[in-house]
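#struct-help
A.M.: can someone run this one for me? Single chain, 311 residues.
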Amino acid sequence: MKLGAVDIGSNAIRFQVTSILEHDKTISFKKLEYVRFPLRLGQDVFNNNEISAEKEAKFIKLMQTFKNLFDLYEVDDFIICATSAMRESKNGKDIAYKVKFLLGVDIQIIDGEKEAELINKVLFSELDDHSYIHIDVGGGSTEINIFEDKRKVATNSFKIGSVRRLSGLDTSEEWENMRSWIEKYTHDVQKPITAIGTGGNIGKIYELANPGKMKGNVKQIISINKMEEIRDFIAQHDLEDRINVLMLNPDRADVIIPASDIYISAMKFARATKMQVPEVGLKDGLMLMLYERNKKGKGKSTFKNVNKYAK
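D.P.: on it. Structure tokens below:
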């Protein structure tokens, strides 16, 4: 079985095709193709409340390209989801309708709660009977989940994101809302609390903290002190040096500091001192949802043996 997913974020749009392999009751998700395009819809939306005509034209071309790739890979099913930029844009729904009319593909504009739910689908293998705060930082919003003993205690979405913060459009009121909410729901859970970080920026922060370290099934863990050290190290470089010396992508180089601030602040609110950094995100949750949808009615599927690290 081949499945495809597109995650339309505020900073970048991610496309993936995955082959589902089943052998000896083990399910493996093998990545066949991955494309990340830095369209940065949030830059338009958070400043002007709508997606510009120029970016709309690029967006439609991108959707056409992804549709062609789905056809070429002969995927059995695919899904396209959009998050905070398109759901906050006053012309986001109109653009989604236009894509449906021109290309015949549906774009699902999901809310923060649904976004968190989809990411949670692939997080449960990271959990044990301790307490966790899951922090997913996107370009336009941050989704927070609190877990205790493999049970979700609370979930919320806040209009605080890397692109939004870069543009100075995050508000002190929303920061206070996030602080008070995290403190409320982490006050009575079992201590200590470990953070789980998802989103492209935390992966890059971990990579900079551990150059050359092999990835795989071993849990990737970084302390809050090391995160602050890496943030300060990046901040010592201007934008040009971040790109040419630290080898960051241009669309990562400017948002990684705002994103770092969000991760670190949320950890401090929860009094978490270390963070696990699994290589999962919304697109992985979409893949798992598609798999469940396609296997429905064909026998009970369990995911405790899913090998999401298959390459």
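A.M.: thanks! The radius of gyration is 19 Å.
D.P.: also worth noting: Residues 2-112+282-295 form a domain with the Nucleotidyltransferase; domain 5 fold (CATH 3.30.420.40).
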